[in-house]
């Protein structure tokens, strides 16, 4: 196995930045038809913060606050997403229950450094998954305000898939530093942004990436936004959990 992807498959494509979501930039910068060339796997959100996005195996879904999951449409726009061509090099099976902290320790053990980008996929049975789903925002309020009314769901003893990324600390504010995971159940009926989980058993795949590629939007709201954050760590703690 090799960790050297070619230029295309080694890339984590990043559309816009986490700081712009914090600043309330929810205007769609690209639609999914335009970004699909950048990956078959990813997480993100939608214009007006209207739901969470999850995609893998080249199938992409919108997860909404009413608990539904629907296949997204090519014309659906997004203000923020992270995509990659998922080509895992590491596989590991887990047959004993692990909570989030225990599982993250396992994840750390399996990779060479915190200073690289990784994509993860976990298929399994989860004793619990606690998710939130951002809700439609008519106005561009700061995301710390927008999440005050976010619905939180608890999935119990559910088969499903968690996917997402590890972003190194030095890229905080471009994406979410640390682990950023989204969940969808096996029936593709519900899910959201992962706040907490207990894995019962499952299979983990890890794809070590070679680089991040940042696309800066040219939308009116991005161009005019004040993206300097006074307390970036705290804002991301509040919005991402
Ligand atoms: Zn998320």
Structural account:
There is one protein chain. With 241 residues, this protein is α+β, with helices and mostly antiparallel strands. The protein has 6 helices and 15 strands. It has a single domain (3-240), classed as Hypothetical protein, similar to alpha- acetolactate decarboxylase, domain 2 (60s Ribosomal Protein L30, Chain: A), CATH 3.30.1330.80. 15% of the residues lie in helices and 41% in strands. The longest helix is centred in the middle third of the chain and has 10 residues, at 100-109. Strand 3 (41-45) and strand 4 (52-56) form a beta hairpin. The chain is globular. The mean pLDDT is 94. It has helices at residues 18-22, 32-35, 100-109, 143-146, 220-224, 232-240, and strands at residues 11-15, 30-31, 41-45, 52-56, 59-63, 69-71, 77-78, 81-84, 90-94, 98-99, 118-132, 152-167, 178-185, 191-208, 211-215. The structure holds zinc ion. Residues 43, 52, 180, 182, 193 line the site of zinc ion.
């Amino acid at each position: 196995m090799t960790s050297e992807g070619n230029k295309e498959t080694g890339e984590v494509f990043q559309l816009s930045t986490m700081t712009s979501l914090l600043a309330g930039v929810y205007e769609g910068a690209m639609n999914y038809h335009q970004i699909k060339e950048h990956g078959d796997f990813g997480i993100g959100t939608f214009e007006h913060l209207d739901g969470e996005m999850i995609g893998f195996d080249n199938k992409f879904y919108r997860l909404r606050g009413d608990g539904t999951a629907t296949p997204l449409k090519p014309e659906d726009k997004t203000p923020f997403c992270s995509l990659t061509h998922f080509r895992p090099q590491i596989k590991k099976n887990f047959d004993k229950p692990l909570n989030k902290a225990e599982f993250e320790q396992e994840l750390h053990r399996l990779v060479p450094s915190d200073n690289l980008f990784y994509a993860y996929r976990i298929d399994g049975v989860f004793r619990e998954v606690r998710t939130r789903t951002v809700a439609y925002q008519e106005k561009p309020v700061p995301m710390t305000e927008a999440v005050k009314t976010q619905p939180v769901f608890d999935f119990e003893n559910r088969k499903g898939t968690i996917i997402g990324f590890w972003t190194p600390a030095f890229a905080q504010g471009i994406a979410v530093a640390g682990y950023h995971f989204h969940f969808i159940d096996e029936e593709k009926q519900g899910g959201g942004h992962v706040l907490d989980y207990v894995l019962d058993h499952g299979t983990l795949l890890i794809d070590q990436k070679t680089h991040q590629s940042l696309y800066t939007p040219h939308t009116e709201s991005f161009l005019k936004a004040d993206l300097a954050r006074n307390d970036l760590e705290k804002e991301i703690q509040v919005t991402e959990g």
